[in-house]
Design goal:
HSP40/DNAj peptide-binding domain, about 300 residues, Helix Hairpins, alpha+beta, binds zinc ion, 3-stranded mixed sheet, 3 domains
Length: about 300
């Protein structure tokens, strides 16, 4: 294979000016506009490539380094050299150096489930992850005492189960992705460790708390009798259960405010409000006796002279 110097018919010591002059001369001879022979086309292609390298100071410098290195490393001849470009040479030369590239460790993703109260207040979860650490025997070199490391079976790393306690911040949203830097799989040859990603699933139940503008909302389902007769209704708060006294004839969607049981204000150390909305839940089944009594109630209601429309 001809070197770029040979293609342009110049010396490796030729100056840029000399090379430029020679290149122009060859262009005049082999340019497709002036030379229509099939060989000329190939030659023109090669001289263009050669000039691109040799007339660029930076590329020529690299090319020269490469030629010297190649001469030292091997005398191997390459076939099919027409597709052989400068970058190919450069790549091949690079490969012969046994300097491993830094490899970043893989990320690990786990998911945790928390309830809505924890989502509001923040919480912690301990997750078990299968991570990798450098083999303590061969320290990642895969070989120890000139033979394949028996401890890691030549992998350079070993799998280790690790417990990591993850702090989940307050006001976390469902499906949030938390990043714990550097707790993924180990990087190799100086590469960074991967990250651990924790997907936080917030369990949604119908009696869940909702939070808006720092106020806690809670839907309390009560029976029709309690709504009509009034009574005590137990409701959860972020700090434990509380009891609301429901007056007789409470309407559905009627709200009650509980003070000092909401979200703690970090600055004032005072707790906010919880708004409880009453929703009337119809029983899923009733006994014969209840059926009878409901029928009676209906009759009584229809007999009432000034009865409101209550079907
Ligand atoms: Zn090992």
């Amino acid at each position: 294979m001809q070197s770029y110097y040979e293609i342009l018919n110049v010396e490796s010591t030729s100056s840029k000016e000399e090379i430029k002059k020679q290149y122009k001369k060859l262009v005049r001879m082999y340019h497709p506009d002036v030379n229509s022979s099939p060989e000329a086309e190939e030659i023109f292609k090669n001289i263009t490539r050669a000039s691109e390298i040799l007339l660029d100071d930076e590329k020529r410098k690299k090319y020269d380094l490469l030629r010297n290195a190649n001469k030292k490393i091997n005398q191997k001849t390459y076939n099919n050299s027409s597709d052989y470009t400068f970058s190919d040479l450069f790549q091949k030369n690079k490969k012969t150096k046994e300097e491993p590239k830094a490899i970043q460790g893989e990320d690990i993703t786990v998911s945790v489930t928390i309830d809505s109260k924890e989502a509001i207040l923040g919480t912690t979860r301990t997750v078990n992850i299968a991570t990798s650490i450098l083999c303590p025997k061969c320290e990642g070199h895969k070989f120890a005492n000139n033979q394949k490391c028996t401890y890691c079976e030549g992998k350079g790393e070993i799998t280790k189960n690790k417990k990591i306690t993850v702090k989940i911040p307050s006001s976390v949203k469902n499906k949030s992705k938390l990043r714990i830097k550097g707790e993924g799989k180990i990087g190799k040859f100086g590469g960074k460790n991967g990250n651990l990603y924790v997907i936080v699933n917030v369990e949604q139940k119908h009696e869940d708390f909702k939070i808006e503008n720092g106020i806690v909302y809670y839907d309390a389902y009560i029976s029709p009798y309690t709504a009509i007769l009034g009574g005590n209704v137990k409701v959860p708060t972020l700090w434990g259960d509380a009891t609301i006294k429901i007056p007789p004839l409470t309407k559905t969607n009627q709200s009650f405010k509980l003070i000092d049981v909401g979200i703690m204000n970090e600055k004032t150390q005072k707790k906010g409000d919880e708004i409880v909305k009453i929703l009337i839940q119809i029983p899923t089944s009733i006994t014969d006796e209840e059926f009878y009594l409901y029928e009676k109630l209906k009759e009584i209601n229809l007999k009432k002279r000034n009865a409101p429309i209550f079907q």
